[in-house]
Amino acid sequence: MRKKIVAGNWKMNLNRTESIQLVSEISKEIKDIKIGNNRIIVAPVSVNLAAVVENQGNDKKIEYASQNMHFAEKGAYTGEVSAGILKGINVNITLLGHSERREYFKEDDVLLKQKVDAAIANEIEIIFCFGEKLEDRESENHFKIVESQIKNALFHLKESDWSKIVLAYEPVWAIGTGKTATPEQAQEMHAFIRNLVKENYHNNVAENVSILYGGSVKPANAQEIFGKPDVDGGLIGGAALKADMFAEIIRAMK
Ligand code: PGA
To answer: Given this model, what pLDDT does residue 70 score?
Structure first.
């Protein structure tokens, strides 16, 4: 059975002290929440990852992810971080393909496929992000765009690799804009995505992959969005930077 996940993408926010502080505030806020089979992940700035992991102590409720990863093992790639370097600080999850990486750093499907392969080869779990821009939705190309983003970067994988894949549908027009997809729009796209996976692999893979929704998820809308049958949680930006809001969103995952 697939797991529900609430993941916080901190983007380029919080220094080392603030990152450790926020993790400890989240830990306090969620102390009494029964997580069960569900998962909570946060993705701090990469230079602060080691510090938050080391400060974690015995509280294993929160898992840590990188916001990005390079495909090469090592070498002349100034400013980048490899799978091996992440594993060296006990980080075994990475986001890949976030729309801000696609937009500002020109990451395309070809590059993302290389990153996906490197992560899989190193047994790093991937939260693979994708989603259409406003003009794609307005021209009714959103299904086509999402299909190609997923196909180009993921559909060459072996069936067994899918245990390391989490999908995150994030319509670009909803990220940081306060404009959320309606629960119906999210469900419609998530059902479409699950069906794509089913057609390319089979039912088992499709039923087991968690598909998160991202884009202006807040305490006020989380419950309704997460209540849809094909929405398995969320990837949270702005609201992940406040412990009480993030905890409320975690509570919305049943
Ligand atoms: P947001 O960001 O929640 O601030 O819209 C989501 C994301 O970019 O992952």
So the answer is: 98
